[in-house]
Amino acid sequence: MNMKLTRASSYAIHAVAFMAQQKSNEKPMASHNIAAARTIPERFLLKVLKPLVSARVLHSVKGPNGGYRLAKAADKITLLEIVEAVDGPIRGVAPFEEEGNGPLNHKLEAICKKGAEAMRAQLEKVTVAELAAKK
């Protein structure tokens, strides 16, 4: 992932935050309800929810009353977990890695790595509960 949120990770954060705002996490939420509430295309949302289940951020419940629910308390889920589940690890990579760019490329890469580390640190500090708090 580069150092901006992708549409997929943004949708994932919105979906998980919406689920955290609901009164009960016991009853699974249907994907079409989540999609409608956050105006996310349902087909795209389903693609985003799958890696969140694999990363154990969400539980998937099959059947006519199935859907998705948080796998753990919202204050135990960080934005970093969501972003990296959907988009993979945040890495700082220089814009090009061609031979012959020498010291300049190494400096750019070091700067990009520091930026990625800062982004990871920020996303790790914020939980879904904090983001979803209605204030």
Structural commentary:
The protein is mainly alpha-helical and 135 residues long. It has a domain of 89 residues: Orthogonal Bundle (Arc Repressor Mutant, subunit A). It contains six helices and two strands. It has a two-stranded antiparallel ribbon with strand order 1-2. A hairpin with a 5-residue loop joins strand 1 and strand 2. It is elongated, with a radius of gyration of 17 Å.
Count, helices: 6
| Helical residue percent band | 40-55%
- Please identify which CATH superfamily of one domain we are dealing with: Winged helix-like DNA-binding domain superfamily/Winged helix DNA-binding domain
Shape: elongated
How would a textbook summarize the main sheet?
A: 2 strands, antiparallel
SSE sequence, one letter per element? HHHEEHHH
Distance between the termini: 31 Å
CATH topology of one domain: Arc Repressor Mutant, subunit A
What are the segments in which pLDDT stays under 50 over at least 5 consecutive residues?
Answer: none
Spatial extent as radius of gyration: 17 Å
- CATH top level assignment of one domain: Mainly Alpha
The CATH architecture of one domain would be Orthogonal Bundle
Strand content: 5-15%
Strand order of the largest sheet: 1-2
